[in-house]
Structures are given as structure tokens and as C-alpha cells.
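This section describes the prediction task in plain terms. A model, or a person checking by hand, is given the sequence of a single protein chain and must write out its three-dimensional structure as a string of C-alpha cells. No templates, partner chains or ligands are provided. The sample shown here is typical of the held-out split.
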Amino acid sequence: MLKILIVRVSSLGDVVHNMPAVADIRRRYPGAQIDWLVEESFADLVELVAGVRRAIPFSLRRWRKHLFSRTTWREIGVFRRALAAERYDLVIDCQGLIKTAWIAKWAHGPLVGLGNRTDGAGYEWPVRFFYNRRVPIAPRTHVVERTRQLVAAAIDLAGPGPASAAAVADSIDFGLDTSRASFALSTYGLNLPVPYVVLVHATSRVDKAWPETDWIELGRALIARGISLVLPWGNDAERQTSERLAQAFGAAAIVPPRLSLPAVVGLLDAAAATVGVDTGLVHIAAALKRPTIELYNFATAWRTGGYWSPRVVNLGEGGAPPSLQQVKSALAGFGLL
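The expected answer:
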């Protein structure tokens, strides 16, 4: 039985975009045992992916904060021995960074990785010295296809060839278990009025944000149509923004407690639509193939935007951020405005 280790530790959006590779492997090798090495904060999300036998939590972010602690090095030693104890037929580093190639090398099995950097993606050229085999990828390649092409080459799977874009999109399966996600959401005991739209305002970069005035006008337009709003958050600053927006919306807005990632999947899957900036939660909504509007302030939608469903709409580009009217029109296309 083929045993494969996938290495993609972060970030949230990139972890989501890596998921279709699992379904690709299972189509070729239905009985394959697939483990996934991932940053510990994303492990419970990876566990929702059909075909993943085990999500192996990697704690580099936490270790870095306590690098001179004996406890940290003891934990690293335990992790390294546990990883080395498993024998893999193939280890695939989908991230292309020194840290991921270094850790991947701790596992037993031939290591395959990216042969070059693609436009807009992270890649550190010294990783080539870690790999037993390097796979070149065309520079202008979507992040989902970059991983799919890498994995296809690693398992000697024939590429899609001259198939139409629609056929390629149809083959993309993120494999998220929505029933388990729904259960995770139910444990919070939230009373979510239906229909509701999720507004994802939070981003790690200020230059990716959408103006609060537009969020408020959009939210009020949805409320006028009898639609409730849910504003999730992941840290104190995001919570404060959610609460500030909710005050402008009144009783129709809900600021939930901080949700686990499986619960977030359940929240997004049950939403009438998700509107948000270029961030991990929005990429989850797109992966679920639910009505999703992705807001871009840069010409990067070609690299990270959803293209696998007509229910995923990418708006905005470099020098031309998405307008409020564009977002309203897109929601009208979903029958919500």
C-alpha cells in the first residue's frame, strides 16, 4: 500500500489550496495512506479532508517563541523521532521553503519538491539540495495547479493534457467533510437566522482591506432584504472591528465567539454567501463551492482566486479595487440583492 507524506505547513489559504492534491492521489491510488505535515493551528482543518489518514501537527511558530527552552528542544526531539519512525514511499514538499524541506528530510522516504519559483509564490532556491527529485513548474501558474502538477509528477500521474478549462475545474475536489464541520459548529450553540451572509473583513495586510464605509453600506443593503450578517474574527483587533461593524448593523448582525476552523467551515457552508477580502476564510468558502465573492486590491486573483465554480466571483485588480456596486451586482447574481 502506497504511503505518502504531504508537507504544507502554512499559511491558511495555502493549506486550503493544497487540499485538491489529496483527491488527485486517491484517484490514481484509491488505497493510498496519506499523512499531512501541517502547522498545529491548522491540523484540525486538515483532518476534515477526505483521504488524509493523519494530520501531523508541526509547532514551529510556537517553538520559535521559546527557542532556548529545554522543553522546546525536548519536544522537537520527540517530534523528530516520531516522524522518522514512519516509512513513506514518497514525501512531497509542496511549500518549497528551507524550513519545510529541512523538516521533510527528517521523514524516511524519497523527497520530491518544486524545481523553481512561480510568480508571487514563496520559494527558497537552496531547497533544491534537499530534494531527491525536483519538478519544474511554469512561472505563471495558479497555486492550486502548482501543487496539483507537483503531485502529479511525483506520483507519475499523467497531466490533464489538452482538456478544457471546465474539465480541469470539474476535477478539483477539496474533500472537506461538511457533516463533521456542521457538528463542530453546532457545539457552539449559536442561533443563526437563515438566510445569513458572512462578511470577512479581516486580513493580515492593511493594503488588502476593503473600506468600512463600503462594508456598512453593503450590510445595510442585505439587511433591507431580510438577510442577517455574521462577522467572524480571529484575534482581538478583528473582534473589535466586527463589533464596531455590528453596532452599525443593529440586531441583524451576529459576532460569534472565536470559532475553531472546523466550525468556521460549517459556518461558511451554511451561509447564503460569503463576501470577503483575500484571506484564508474566504478561500475556505470558495473551496466549498458556495456563493463566494473574493475582493482583490491587487492583480493576484489569477494566482489565488477560485476558478473551479461559477459560484465563486473574483472582483478587483491592481489599481482598480472592487467597488461597492460591483459587489452588489455579484450578490444580485446570487439572488440576494
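For orientation: The first strand starts at residue 3 and ends at 7.
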